[in-house]
Amino acid sequence: MDFDTSILNLDAKVIFFPVRHHSPACARFVRELATKIRPAAILIEGPADFNDQISELNLLHQLPIAVYSYAHFSDNTRLAAFYPYCVYSPEWQALQIAKELDIPAEFIDLPWSKMATTKTAHHRYSDRELRQSQYVSQLCETLGIEGLDHLWDHLFEIDPALTLETYLDRAHQFCFHCRALDEPTLEDQQREAFMTEKIRQAIARYGGQILVVTGGFHSYALHTQLLNPPTEPQASLVFSYLEQCLKPAIVQQGIALTPFSYDRLDSLTGYDAGMPNPGFYHQVWQHRYQSSAQEDTYTHNAIYREVFAQIVTALRSHQQLISAADLIAVESAAHALAALRSHAEIWRQDIIDAIVTSLIKEEVTTTHPLLRAVHEVFRGSERGKLAAGISVPPLVQEIKQQLKQHDLEPQPIGRIVQLNLLEEPACSQLLHQLRILQIAGFNRTGGIDLAARQDLSIQWEEWSIAWSPAYEGSCIEAAIYGSTLLEAAEMRLLELAKQCEQQSESAALLLLDACLMGVQTLIPPLYQQLLTLIQSDSDFFAVTSTLTHLLYLYSYDELLGIAEHAEIGYLLQVTFTRSLWLLESLGQVRDQDQQLLNAVKTLLETVQRCDRTLNLDRETFIAVLARTSQEQTQNPVLRGATIGALWVLDEAPTEQVLTDLYAISNHLGDFLTGLFSIAREMIQRSPELLNQIDRIIAQFDDEAFLEALPSLRLAFTYFTPREQHMLSHTLTQFWTKSPAPILEISPEQIAQIKAREARLLSTIAQYGLRGIRE
Predict the structure, then answer these.
(1) Do 197 and 343 sit in the same domain of this protein?
(2) Domain that holds residue 188
(3) pLDDT band at 271, cuts 50/70/90?
(4) What was the pLDDT predicted at 127?
(5) pLDDT at 259
(6) Is 725 domain-assigned?
(7) Rounded to whole angstroms, how far apart are CA atoms 570 and 531?
(8) 32 — phi, psi (to 5°)?
(9) Is 746 exposed, middle or buried (0-12, 13-18, 19+ CB in 10 A)?
(10) Which of 62, 311, 455, 746 has its CA 20 to 30 A from that of 384?
C-alpha cells in the first residue's frame, strides 16, 4: 500500500493532525495549524461520553488533570481508565485554541466502558501501538537509537526550527509505516469505526473545515475510511459486536475530572507508559513555546541551562556537593554528546549521560544520588487541582457531607483526633470506611488495635487527619465502588476478599475490617469466601493465625457487637478442625519456635473458651496433642508445648510430664521453652516437678550445661521476675532443711560499700569502659 499524499492537503474538508500524546512539539503545531486554518470545529481523541461535560475543561484548573472513566459490570468486575492532560498535551492545547477561537470542540473516541477489559490499557493516552511497532524497532536499529522515546525526540522534539509542514509530512509518513507493518487490534478497528462515524456527523453538523486531532497511529486509517468507506461490515467488527453482546452488562458507570500529578504520570510503565520525564517536557514547553509566544525570542540551549540549574539545586538540597569544575565538565560533555548525536540542542539523554560520565566514578545504579536528583527534576513536581464548579460523583458529595457532620473535615494544618469507641462509634466507622477506600489524609496512628490486640484495655482510637493534595482525587476515584459511602466501602472490601487467594488470615482481617466499618451485612459473603479459603489453606501457621482472629471476634468482641455471632462460630469450628489436621501432618519445623507456641496457645484457648458453646471435638484435640507430644522426631519445643497443653487440660498427669522430661533431657531447654510457655501457672503449683528439672540440670557436665544454657535462659523468660523469685525460693527449700540465714550488716558498712562502689564506677567512666550500668 502506497502513502496517499492527499492527507497532507491543508485545504481538504477534513484535516488530520497526528499526535503523540504529551508531546510539546505536537502541542505547539496543533495550535499553529488551528490558528492558520480556523476550522469550523476541532475533533479530539477523547471519551465521547464526556462531551456533555466538556465545558468543564475550560475552567481555571491547575494542571495536570485527567478525565476518569469507570464502570462496574454484572460479573462484579470494576475497571477504570484515565485520559491525563498536561499543559503541553496536544489534546489540551487543541481544547484551549478552540476556546480562544470560539469554535466548538468535541471528543470522538469510543467511550471507555464500551471497550473495557482487564487487558485494555488504563492510560488511554499511552503509546501502546507505537511501542509495539516493528517499524519503530527497525528504524531505531537503522539510526542507532535506543527505543521509541529517543527516536521521537530525534525526529520531532529536539530541533526548534522544525516547521508545521515538515512535521505533518514526517509524522504522517512515520505513523503510516508503523501501521503498515503491524495489524491493528480489534480494539483499534472498533474505535476507528466509531471515530469515523463521529467525523461524518461533524461534517454534516458544522459544514466547514474540520480539524481532527488523534493519535498518529489512527490518523491515516481514519482518512482512508472517510474517503473510501467499506461497502460491507468488516468481519472483525461483526465479531466485535457479537463479543460486546456476550460481555457482562454494565451495572454502573461514570466519568468525571480528577486531579493528576507528574509523579503519577511518570510512574506508568509497560504499554501504559506515555512520554517519560514530564518535568523535562514541561520545561521544554515553557522555555521554547510559551516564552517564545510571549516574547518572540528563544535562547539556544535555554532548556538545558534551566534544567541543569534545577539538578544542581536538587543535588545541594540532598547534601551532594558539586563544584564549578564539575559543572564545566558536565557542560563540555553534554555539548560533545549533543554534537555527536546530531542534536540541534542539548537534550535530556545528553544531560543524563554527561552527568554519568563526568561525575559518577563508581558503579552506576538507579539509586545513585546524582541520578536520583536528575530523575527528580525530570519527573517534575506539578500536581493538579480542580477548579470550583465541576460536577463530581455522588460519593464525593456524601464523603464531604459526612465529614462535615462529624467535624472530621481535613484541614491544611493537620490535627490528631481521639475517638472513644463506646461514645463515638459512628465517627470510628466513618474513618475506617475511608481507610478501606484509601482516601488520602486519614491515618490511624494510635489507640486500640483490634488486629494486633496488644492492649485491649484501652477503648479509644487515635487518628491523624490532614488535607492532602491527593484527597480530592482519591475521593473521585473511589466512586468506582459505588455512589454511597457505605456501598463503596462494602464493594471495596469484597474486591479485596477476591484477592485473598490461599490467604485465609488476610480474609479474616477483612472480616474484622467489616466489623470496624459497621457493615455487618458483609459477614455472609465474606463468610463464604473465608470458609473456602480455610478449607483449602495448607499453611498451619496461617490457619492458626486465622483462628486467633476468629476466636477474638467470637469470644471477646463486645466492643464491635458481634460476640457469639453464629456464622463466625461455625467458621471457628471449621478453622479449629483444619488446624488439628495440619498440626498432625506438620512434620519437623525449624526456626519457627515462637509461631509454634502461638499456634498451640490459640488451639488451647479455643478449647477452653468455646468447647461447650460450639461443641468442639475435644477428643480429637486431645488425641492429636498426645500423638504429637510422643513423636520422637518432632521439634522439642512443640513436644513441650503439646504436653503442657494436655497438662493444663488435666489430660496428662504430672508423672507423664516427668517421664517426658527425662526422655528428652538432651533437648531439655527447648522442651522447657514449650512447656513453660503453655503451662506457666501449672509449673508454679508443682514444686516436685521443678525439683526434678533441677536434678536433671545438675547431672549435666560442663559442656552439656553450656550447650543447654541459651535455651534454658529463654525458657525461664516466660516467668515474671516475681515468679522467678518464687521458683528460686521453692528450690532452696529442697536444697536445705533450715531457713536461709539473715544477713546482718551495719549502716556504717553499707556507707563504706556505697562509697567504694562510687569510686569504682568513677574509674570505669574515666577509662570509657562500656557495658557497665549504674
Answers:
(1) no
(2) 12-134+163-260
(3) very low
(4) 80
(5) 94
(6) no
(7) 9
(8) -65, -45
(9) exposed
(10) 311
Note the pLDDT of residue 628: 87
DSSP single-letter state for residue 161: T
The torsion angle over the Cα atoms of residues 590, 592, 595 and 599, rounded to 10 degrees, is 0
Lowest mean pLDDT segment, chosen from 580-594, 595-609, 716-730, 736-750 = 736-750
What residue type is assigned to position 57 of the chain? L
Q: What is the pLDDT of residue 773?
A: 45
Report the DSSP pairing between strands 460-465 and 415-420: antiparallel
The whole-angstrom separation of Cα 15 and Cα 209 is 8
Instruction: Give the integer Cα–Cα distance in Å for 394 and 478.
Output: 11
Distance CA 138, CA 140 (A): 5
pTM over cut 0.85: no
pLDDT value of position 718: 82
C-alpha distances (whole Å) from 114 to each of 111, 185, 343, 347 are 6, 15, 43, 40
Tell me: do 441 and 415 sit in the same domain. yes
The type of residue at 93 is Q
What is the model's pLDDT at position 267?
66
- Total tally of structural domains belonging to the chain: 3
- Three-state SS for 481-535 is HCCCHHHHHHHHHHHHHHCCCCCHHHHHHHHHHHHHCCCHHHHHHHHHHHHHHHH
- Of the three residues 481, 496, 513, the one that is the final residue of a domain is 481
Q: Sorting pLDDT into bands at 50, 70 and 90, what band is 239?
A: low
Contacts of residues 608-613 at CB distance under 8 Å and 24 or more positions apart, as own/partner, are 608/649, 609/551, 609/555, 610/551, 610/554, 610/555, 610/569, 610/572, 613/564, 613/569
* Burial classification of residue 218, based on how many CB atoms lie within 10 Å of its CB (0-12 exposed, 13-18 middle, 19 or more buried): buried
At residue 302, does pLDDT exceed 50? Answer: yes
Q: How far apart are CA 382 and CA 91, in angstroms?
A: 18
- Beta-carbon contacts of 206 under 8 Å, excluding residues fewer than 6 positions away, are 40, 41, 104
Supply the pLDDT for residue 655. Answer: 85
**Pair 51, 109 in one domain:** yes
Secondary structure (H, E, C), 525-568? HHHHHHHHHHHHCCCHHHHHHHHHHHHHHHHCCCCCCCCCCHHH
The conformational region for residue 353 under phi > 0 = left, psi -120 to 50 = alpha, else beta, is alpha
- The answer to whether residues 312 and 369 belong to one domain is yes
State yes or no: pLDDT of 601 exceeds 60. Answer: yes
CA distance 282 to 87: 7
298 shares its domain with 367: yes
| pLDDT reported for residue 370 | 81
Report d(CA 321, CA 306) in Å as an integer. 19
Residue with cell string 544542581: 312
DSSP H or E run through 54:
none
Model pLDDT for residues 45-90, shown as the tens digit of each residue: 999 999 999 999 999 999 999 999 999 888 888 889 999 999 999 9
Cα 57 to Cα 745: distance, rounded to the nearest angstrom: 90
Distance CA 267, CA 224 (A): 36
Mean pLDDT of the chain: 85
Query: What φ, ψ does residue 126 adopt, rounded to 5°?
Result: -85, 180
Give a yes or no: residue 30 inside a domain: yes
What grid cell was written down for 96?
484551549
* Helix orientation angle between 540-555 and 504-516, rounded to the nearest 10 degrees: 20
Q: Residue 535 forms beta bridges with which residues?
A: none
pLDDT at 126: 81
Residue 340 has pLDDT above 70, yes or no: yes
Confidence of residue 119 (pLDDT cuts 50, 70, 90): low
Sheet of 14-19, strands arranged across: 14-19, 210-215, 41-47, 105-109
Region of residue 522 (left: phi > 0; alpha: psi -120 to 50; beta: else):
alpha
